[in-house]
Amino acid sequence: MKRRLSLFALVLVLSACHSARVEREPDEATEVDPLLSQSGVAHVVVTEAFVTASTENDNIDSPAAWRAPDGKTWLFATAKEGPGLTLYDGDTGETWRSYGTEGDAPGQFRRVNGISIVDDLLFVVERDNHRVQVLTLPSLAPISAFGAKDLTQPYGVWVRKRDGQVYEVLVTDAYMAGKRANGWDIPPPLSELDRRVHRYRFERHRGGAKIEHLGAFGDVTEAGAIRIPESIQGDVAHDRLLISEEDTMTGTAVREYNLAGQYRGRTIGLGLFKAQAEGIALWQCADGSGYWITTDQYKDRSLFHLFDRVTLEHIGAFAGQAVANTDGIWLHQAATTRFPNGVFYAVHDDQGVGAFDWRDIARALNLRADCTAN
Length: 374
Prior knowledge:
Number of strands: 29
Helix content: under 10%
Structural class: mainly beta
Strand content: 35-45%
Strand order of the largest sheet: 1-26-25-24-23
Number of domains: 1
Distance between the termini: 77 Å
CATH architecture: 6 Propeller
CATH class: Mainly Beta
């Protein structure tokens, strides 16, 4: 009898651990996982240059890359249920090490999500610490954290360098109105969606930083509101912000705002996205041309839609051989040892990161391989 009780207790413990590991996000309220193989959406296949080793318990969310002083490419990924950050070789996919522990002290993390790198600053969004933590590279020394007084459930981040040591930081906030009986989150009513993106001024000083909260924005109309936000990316040359709308109930797509935070009356990919709009990246040239890359999060293989940078017209779509269920993406446009024309990184199934040589993407979709090509 004691043995049976012990086995029963073990089952309960394992079940509890499993439930904790597969904690749903606000954007995961779906009864049936959509599959690219059943979607009928036209696309080409581009083979990955590599896919990193899987760490299925880490719940990998978003990548970002940085060129170190010695010329190596550092590829970071946020680990929602891991130590905080995982660091890979950006040219080979080799796992180098993990960084961080659980907690709210400097260098500690709770439920990390979005990530961005500008200059030698690494910005990491922590959902459950309700903040953005900033580390300096290559030392990974924490220098600042901000947002705890303003943010409820932060996810995505975009950083824009202004002047000198001043940066503008935009952070999406997926605060909810409550939960349904099945545990899924309930988006707030339209009138309460005016704080979906928070704006900060980050000024770096020796040994620290001065941070100012500049307010928040969000459209409250039926067409322009963002019910479930995550990824955000800006384009200064065209006064444009693209923000993913992940709510499948009203239609998952990408909203276009201006840099001041006003909805521009256009939603991109409505009806084209069949699974869920997720990561956003921009391939850009100095003359204003380029391509937007957006993610449709199919569970079997992720689909990446490309749009013209200027007109936002749909150009085409590609999928990898393996990469699936992608949250965050990152385009590293600068040359690396292995990727002379840059590399596109995409999270793979919450377990690792896949890399695509930009030359392979350009060849498959008849795009420009670099900014000098016609």
